[in-house]
Structure formats: C-alpha cells, structure tokens
Amino acid sequence: MACRPQLTPVLRRLARTTSELSRQAPRPQVLSLTRTAAAAGSRSLGSSQPRPFQHTPARRKDGDDFTSIKYPELKRDGRFGRLTLDHVAHFRSLLGDSNSALIDGVANAEAAADDLEPFNSDWMRKYRGHTQLVLKPASTTEVSQILKYCNDNMLAVVPQGGNTGLVGGSVPVFDEIVLSMSRMSQILEFDDVSGTLVAEAGCILEVADQYLAARGYIFPLDLGAKGSCHLGGNLSTNAGGLRLLRYGSLHGTVLGIEAVLPDGTVVDDLSRLRKNNTGYDLKQLFIGAEGTIGVITKVSIQCPQRPAAQNVAFFGLESYEHAQRAFREAKGQLSEILSAFELMDEGSQALVHRVTGSKRPLESTHPFYCLIETSGSNADHDSEKLSAFLESVMDKGIVADGTLAQDETQLRALWAWREGITEALGHLGGVFKYDVSIPLAQMYQLVEDTRARVAEAGLLGDDADGTHPVRAVVGYGHMGDSNLHLNISTRRFDPRIEKVLEPFVYEWIAQRQGSISAEHGLGLAKKKYIGYSRSEGMVGLMKQIKGLYDPRGIMNPYKYI
Amino acid sequence: MSALRILVPIKRVIDYAVKPRVNKAQTGVETAGVKHSMNPFDELSVEESVRIREKKSAPGGVEDICVISAGPTKAQDILRTAMAMGADRAIHVEVKEGEDLEPLSVAKLLKTAVEQQKSNLVILGKQSIDDDANQTGQMLAGLLGWPQATQASKVEFGEGDTVSVTREVDGGAETLKAKLPMIITTDLRLNEPRYASLPNIMKAKKKPLEKKTLADFGITAERRLKVLKVTEPPTRQGGGKVDDVDGLISKLKEMGAI
Ligand SMILES: Cc1cc2nc3c(=O)[nH]c(=O)nc-3n(C[C@H](O)[C@H](O)[C@H](O)COP(=O)(O)OP(=O)(O)OC[C@H]3O[C@@H](n4cnc5c(N)ncnc54)[C@H](O)[C@@H]3O)c2cc1C
C-alpha cells in the first residue's frame, strides 16, 4: 500500500478536505480542532458584536479588546474579594507547588501574562478577561477544597473545559479565578457489555471517542471542536452536535454526574444505571448549567454500538417545501438507520465553493441542498433501504438531483460541504451568527425575512466593488433537530447592520415560540436575550435554583441568567 | 479514424481512506469487515473514458465503454459505480474471495477480453493501491504487442488514429505519440473523477452486466509468487508527557541527554 500517501496531492476531494477545511473537522475523526489551529483560522461571531477584521497573531498584552472595555455596561461586582498573595499561598498548599497545578499572575503579573492568556481569551477571540490565577486541580477533593475556600473568601470562579464555547461563558470577565479541568482527564472505567463509560470531566471528547472506537462503541455526541472540548464542557453546555438526531440529547444519555458545589459539597450522583426513579433527578440541573451552580468532576454516560456501515447522500432541492418533504420521507423510509439530516441553502454552498474551490457535488445549482447520513450494522441491508428511498424521492419529484458517496473519500468530501460552512464564512470576514430553534415549517422563513430586511435597508449586495457591507444572508443547520444557523456574512464593520438585525431576529423567534439559543447556550453573549425564549416566571424559578446551589454567587458570575 | 471501443479494467480494493491492517496469520491484509471501493486510479480511467466521449475529443467518436473486473461477487458494486459514472456495460469475472490473481494472470485474462470485445484502447490505472504492483498495463501491452503509454496526465487524439499522451517525469513532462490500438495507464493528475448522480446511479442498475468465470478466458488462479510474510512497519515509539520544567529536566538527566 506504499502509494497511498502519494495519492494525497491530487486526490482532490480529500486534499481539500484536509488542508482547507481542517478546523471544522470533517468526519470521521481524521482531523480535529486544536486551540492553536482554531486561533489561527476561523473565528465566528456571537450575535451582538462584529469582530475586528484583522487579527494580529499574537495578542497585545494591553489592549482595548478586553470584555470589560468592549462592554462598559458590565461592572465588577464589589462583593468579590481581590486575590492576595495569601490566597495564592493557600492554593499552593492545596495543590502543590508545581507549575502544572497553578499559574500565578498575582505575584508577578508580567511574567505570567503569556501563560495566562490562553485561559483569558475565548475561541472566537471575542471575549477576553483579566484573570491572574489559573488553578488546575487533579482530583475531586482538590476541587472541593478550592471551591470551599473561594466560597468562604468570596472569590469568584470560572470553570473552564476545552474553552471552545461560542457564547463567552468559559472565560472570565474581570479577575475571576479560572478553574481548569485539564488535569482531570482520565477514563476511569468502561463496561463492555452495557456500554457505560465513566470518565473525569476534563477528558477530551475525541480521546473518549477513540477509546470507545477501539472497543466497538461510539460516543453519543460529535461536534467540530471534538479535538479540544471536554466532556465536562459538553455536559455544561448541553452540546447538541451532529449525532443528536440519532442518539438523542445528553439529558438522555448521561447516566450520572459527580459534581462539587461552591460550598465544597460533593454531589455524589455518579450512577451507572439506566433506570433510577428514586427522587428528583438533580444531575439534570448540571447539564446545560454552564458552570453556574457547581463544577462537574466526573461523568457516566451510556454509549451506543459503533455503526459498522455508513452512507451519505447529498440532494439538490427546488424549495424549502421540498426539503421538508424529503425529511418526512427519510424518517419514514430510513427510520432506524437515519443518523443525520442536514440542510444547506445555495448561499452557504456558494460561499464554501468560493473559499475552498472544491468541485461541487452536483452539476447544477439548486436553492437548497440536504445531506443525509445513514448508520447501521449491515451494509447490504442499509444500501437496499437507501436505494429504495433514493428511487422513491427521485420518482416523486421531491429531489431534483443528488449523489450518493461511492467511497469513504467521497463521504468525507460531502460532509465537508456541511461542516465547512462555519469556517468558510469565517474566512470571508465578520459574521453575525444566530443559533436558533424554530418549528420546522417556519424555520427557513427567518432567513428569507432577514435577507429581505437587510436588503431593504440597502445593506445587502454581492457586488465585487464591495459597496454593500453585507455579502450574504445564509441559512443552514441540523434540520433533523429543527435547529437553524442564520448567518450574516459581512464585508466590514457597519453599525447599521446590528441595528437592522437586533432585536428583529429575537422578536421574530419569540413570536413563533422558538429558542434564541438552540445549542450554544447563553454565556455572556445571550444572557440579556433570555426573555425572548423564557417567561419571567421561568427565569424566576431558575434564579431560585441558582440561589439555592450558589447562594454567594461566586460561580461564573455576570453570565447565564 | 476508427471509432473507439474502450476497455476499462477496474479493481475492488480496500478503501483509500481506511487504514489497512495485517492479519493475525501475517499472510496478508485483513479484509473481512473492511470497507472496499474502486481503486482510485481506476476511477481516473473510467472518468477519462467518459470524458473522451462527452468532449468528443476522439475524431472517430466512442462506440463502447466496457468496464471489466475480476474479483469476488462484491466487485459488481464497483462495476455499477463505473456504469453510474458513464460506462456502457460491464463484465464481471468471478474469482473466489482470497484467490487473488497475479498481474500476469490478469494481463492474460485481459488479452482475451480485448480480443472478445474487439477493443482498440485499454485504459488502466497505473497500479492498484492494494499491492502496488504497477505491472498489469505493461504486461498486457507486451502480450498484445501494442504500444503503451504509462502514467498519463493528459490524453489527446490526433488525425489518423494517433494518440498523444503526456506523462509527468522527473523535472518536466514527456509526450509520447502512438497509433491505435494502444494501452494507456492513468496517473493522479489526469482528471478529477465525478460524483455519480442519482439518476445515473438508477440507470446504471439497468445497464448490462455480463457474468463470466476464469474458464471463459482459459485462465486458472495459479500462483507463481509465494508470499512469505506480511508485517506492519515498525511502530513509532510513543512520546511521554512531562508535567513541568522540573519533570523535563529530570527526564533528560535520566536519559543521559544532559
Ligand atoms: C468548531 C466548533 C464547533 C462547535 N460545534 C458545536 C455543535 O455542533 N453543537 C454544539 O452544541 N456546540 C458546538 N460548539 C460549541 C460547544 O458548546 C463547545 O464546543 C463544547 O461543548 C464546549 O466544551 P468545552 O470543554 O470547550 O467547554 P468550555 O468552552 O471550556 O466551557 C463552556 C461552558 O461550560 C462551563 N464548564 C466547562 N467545564 C465545566 C465543568 N467541568 N463543570 C462545570 N462547568 C464547566 C464553562 O464555565 C462554560 O460556561 C462548537 C464549538 C466550536 C469551536
């Protein structure tokens, strides 16, 4: 097989997949995102603030890009203590003196600045905090001791996993202590019969998945950031990702959690049981809590059998109506083998094409495309089902054109047309991103209405001379989960864009009882918009929970609710 | 100029994107339960044949594109794929799983096929990525006594049955010219194979696929070569991780590096 590597230069589809679209990790696990790769390349934007268009590779040590300066309305909460050398000395006595357990900028801020920087800046390079201390506990006991001490001394804490969150939740706003889970990364046990995996919260998603792959199992969650994000971070954001349609949300697959409350109490709920109807299911509160009520230290999760056979089909469709019919048919005919149903509009695909130059899968263009993946245990059985399905959607005129991956290379290349969108948009300039959930029937209408609104304001145009600040308004997403990504690709900063978009988009969603954040969470970016998706009464109940578990408010302040 | 009757031999191999593993007995590569697909070089041959027809680049036109594969029953999948890409018909020569043919046997088989199909152009991959032999095209040319142009990166047709083939050589390009009938083997830069469209995948199901046996070609799966042992390349020594600078220094001391 000596010549396999030689194929790469011209093996067109794969070559593009690897070199240009690497950060969005085309599946399966050929590539993965690393913090450095991410920082060098694609960055996406939250909804409310355009990102600067030029990024200097090395961050200035002093700059106006601190969250506290960009958002002057945020004020440091005066109840929180300021870190002293005594505090640091106490943490040293808990964790040991080694540099791997503690990064101290209190004693000498200048010397530690470079080491602290990665913990202060988020993946999008949109938020930047002022932490002077990073603690890296190695055990649940250490986490408990740290939190108890912080609670007693009113020191604010930000739990941090892989720091790939997209809403600014994982980095401090002011001088909160960063509690990094990176040293708690062990896989603790795996039951080969039940498929139950128990691991520490700092275990990287891809590491867990590879461990499982060697044993014929798969992690029930997959997303572009898998090479960096932690299981604890995934749970804390209740990440959705690419396999949700098939394996369901973490609220169903997580069997148990061990967590530590701010007062040091260890929440000992690391059940390995699928069924356990004994009292309130408190672990659910930690799933999606974004580090606001405690720190997750261990996870027990139900992992399914890894599918032996996978197929990917890619369709061109004449309207959104056709896409919905295709989804309906796919569910009906492919039922248990359907593992993904993704939607892309022509605008998004044209931009990917512009950036990557890859050969487009279909001869002609269509207003919509969808990508269907099947996963099953028997390739022949799946192929037969899939062929029957393809034939029927072609015959019924639901699908205008399409293709079916004939080999693994094509399969990955087709996925790149979906997974590469975020990065392609990032290459072209600033992006306003909305990650929303809307009842399926109206889902794409949001893109059309937004596009019309931006055009009406005279901001939209795909002109070469760049007279219009907005290049395109595109939509794509996890159709199988009614989850749409509305993206507005801009050429340059223009204050009019945001005014046109907000609160228009949020109001539009609220009118249809949708969610303003389907899978990325609230963090700092969406905190003030929660009212568009949750009633006052609901937010009140949430605040009670927060008050109960974190009465002194030290956990991830300024964010969430 | 004569109308082209193109024969395209294709092979089912372990998928390019799959990492092959040596079997326990060390007699070969593990194939059970491993994803297979068309040899990537053969995809180029199919694509090139279809393009010659579509682009009308041969003055005499293309009368027939026939794909042929000797292999297990599953090889019919790649024959269907080739027909979905645009080949007219297919021949499947049944070979029992595990009874792989050596390049010379394949060349002999193809010689008979060329005669039976009245082919005047054979386009093959320069090699298949399973054993990397890079021999079949050359042996076939020898057996037939036809001119050969291997590792083509460009194929052009001229007057009077002439074909110019450009091949990449160290430090430049070399152009060969020959007259039909001839043998061409493909290299990576020749073209970019298409995605088979759904309508064509459906149509391919109805295209003729002839089933034959080795006996139809007067061939047996005899082996002249004996595989003694197949082993993995030595594994790289994994690195270790140190916790901090102190750890690094003591490790270096331990190794006697400082
Ligand atoms: C390229 C890319 C693709 C993505 N794709 C998807 C996608 O398809 N679907 C999706 O849902 N999301 C996606 N995301 C965002 C997603 O939320 C994160 O990637 C991931 O789930 C966060 O994990 P993390 O370990 O990086 O957490 P971090 O970013 O470190 O933290 C996220 C939040 O969780 C808290 N937290 C982290 N660890 C703990 C812990 N142990 N205990 C308590 N709180 C903790 C933090 O305080 C923070 O509020 C993507 C992000 C990127 C960069």
Quick structural overview:
The complex is a heterodimer of chains A (561) and B (258). By secondary structure, chain A is of the alpha+beta class.
Question: What this model shows, in words?
Answer:
Chain A: This is D-2-hydroxyglutarate dehydrogenase, mitochondrial. Chain A: It catalyses: (R)-lactate + 2 Fe(III)-[cytochrome c] = 2 Fe(II)-[cytochrome c] + pyruvate + 2 H(+); (R)-malate + A = oxaloacetate + AH2. Chain A: Keywords: FAD, Flavoprotein, Metal-binding, Mitochondrion, Oxidoreductase, Transit peptide, Zinc. Chain A: Residues 127-306 form the FAD-binding PCMH-type domain. Chain A: One of its GO terms (biological process) is malate metabolic process. Chain B: It is found in: Mitochondrion matrix. The complex is a heterodimer of chains A (561) and B (258). Chain A has three domains: 38-180, 2-Layer Sandwich (Uridine Diphospho-n-acetylenolpyruvylglucosamine Reductase, domain 2); 187-302, Uridine Diphospho-n-acetylenolpyruvylglucosamine Reductase, domain 3 (2-Layer Sandwich), CATH 3.30.465; 309-511, Alpha-Beta Plaits (2-Layer Sandwich). Chain A has 561 residues and is of the alpha+beta class. Chain A has 21 helices and 16 strands. Helices cover 34% and strands 17% of the residues of chain A. In chain A, a hairpin with a 5-residue loop joins strand 7 (254-260) and strand 8. Chain A has helices at 4-7, 12-20, 35-40, 67-70, 85-95, 109-120, 140-152, 205-213, 231-237, 244-247, 250-253, 283-286, 320-334, 346-356, 379-395, 408-419, 421-428, 445-456, 495-501, 504-511, 536-549, and strands at residues 102-104, 133-135, 157-160, 177-180, 187-191, 196-200, 254-260, 266-269, 295-302, 309-317, 338-345, 368-376, 401-404, 431-437, 470-478, 483-490. Chain A is globular. With 258 residues, chain B is of the alpha/beta class. Chain B is built from six helices and eleven strands. The interface between A and B is medium-sized, with 38 and 32 residues. Residues 24, 33, 123, 158-166, 169-170, 181, 201, 223-225, 229-230, 232-234, 236-237, 239-241, 290-291, 295-296, 519-520, 523, 556 of chain A line the site of flavin-adenine dinucleotide (FAD). Flavin-adenine dinucleotide binds at residues 24, 33, 123, 158-166, 169-170, 181, 201, 223-225, 229-230, 232-234, 236-237, 239-241, 290-291, 295-296, 519-520, 523, 556 of chain A.
